[in-house]
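Review form for a predicted model. The reviewer records the input and the model, then writes brief findings.
Reviewer: anonymous (R2)
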Amino acid sequence: MRIPSLIACGVLAAACLPASAQSMKPGLWEIHNKMQGGEMDAAMAQMQQQMAQMSPAERKQMEAMMGKQGVRMAPSGGAMAVQVCMTKEMVERNDPPMQDGCKVTRNQRSGNTHKFAFACSNPPSSGEGQVSYQGPEAYTSRMTVKSTTGGKTDTTTMEGSGKWLKADCGSVKPMQAPKK
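Model under review:
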């Protein structure tokens, strides 16, 4: 798995999580995901090794490129931090930001627990998860994603947490709704 594929997987995971919204605050959210299982462990280790072997200038350039997409690697443990902009309209519509080729197949909320499922065509993948909210500014989550590459099915588990940073998203743009 190449670095851009790993980043895309992390961004997709992050995009699926803040879907509940009735009590979430609009604005800039930081989401931390730790991915485990299948090829993801090896891909994260490879990415960290590649980053460690870069010159300081190359590493700074890579971090800047990732930062423009709202993505940064956490300092330890193979975790990834992603910043996501949730607009007031997204929060009010209970509309999860999804990339093209993905759709929500289940979206249920009861109390402070949100259960969801999704399916994507490119790359072929599906998943389900649960988010537990600790008020309008924080949550924890667990998600399982199944993907198929070269005829081989891979299962990845993601544990995450999200926290609201501020009302102004700054340079982080909200994800657009997929084209119908």
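Findings: Residues 3-166 form one domain.
Further findings: Residues 93 and 127 are 22 Å apart (CA to CA).
Recommendation: see findings above.
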